[in-house]
Amino acid sequence: MSEITMDTTELGEKIVKVLKTVYDPEIPVDIYELGLIYDVLVNEDYEVKILMTLTTPNCPVAETLPVEVEDKVKSIKLVKDAEVEITFDPPWTQDLMSEEAKLELGML
């Protein structure tokens, strides 16, 4: 029985699709388009590390959002493990938002 394999780039794209289903409850835009995801790292063993930030250090979802991100990424087939690391370096600014997010929020 052969094991299904996928290259890490393809898996990374699947992870981004899942990240786009996670929303900041205060802003009607997904966390990826908001620019809260700084990096997605996938190693050869399909273990994922996500470096993300929050809109503010005392964000009301600071406890729940990273857990939601981890759980959703872990639910992807082939992902063995997922870890979310929160950073505030660099701090999040509206400049990190995609054009799509800015348009959605009427900022363009």
Summarize the SSE layout with pairings:
Elements: H1 8-19, E1 37-42, E2 47-52, H2 65-74, E3 81-86, H3 99-104
Parallel strand pairs: 2-3
Antiparallel strand pairs: 1-2
Describe this structure in words.
- InterPro entries: Fe-S_Maturation_MIP18 (IPR052339), FSCA_dom_sf (IPR034904), MIP18-like (IPR002744), SUF_FeS_clus_asmbl-assoc (IPR014291).
- Pfam families: FeS_assembly_P.
- This is SUF system Fe-S cluster assembly protein.
- Residues 13-86 form the MIP18 family-like domain.
- The protein is built from 3 helices and 3 strands; from the N terminus they run H-E-E-H-E-H.
- By secondary structure, it is of the alpha+beta class.
- The mean pLDDT is 91.
- It has a 3-stranded mixed β-sheet, covered by helices on one side.
- It has a single domain (8-91), classed as Fe-S cluster assembly (FSCA) (GMP Synthetase, Chain A, domain 3).
How would you concisely characterize the structure shown here?
This protein has 108 residues and is α+β, with helices and mostly antiparallel strands. Helices cover 26% and strands 17% of the residues.
The low-confidence runs, each spanning 5 or more residues with pLDDT under 50, are: none
**For the report, how would you describe the main beta sheet?**
3 strands, mixed
Largest beta sheet: strand ordering: 1-2-3
Shape: globular
The CATH class is identified as: Alpha Beta
- Name the CATH homologous superfamily: Fe-S cluster assembly (FSCA)
Q: From the helix content, strand content and strand pairing, which structural class follows?
A: alpha+beta
The fraction of residues in strands falls at 15-25%
By DSSP (H or I, 4+ residues per run), the number of helices equals 3
Radius of gyration using CA atoms only: 15 Å
What CATH calls the topology is GMP Synthetase, Chain A, domain 3
| CATH architectural group | 2-Layer Sandwich
Q: Estimate percent helicity.
A: 25-40%
**Mean pLDDT level:** 91
Please report the total strand number as a whole number.
3
Number of structural domains: 1
**Series of H and E elements:** HEEHEH
Distance N to C terminus: 53 Å
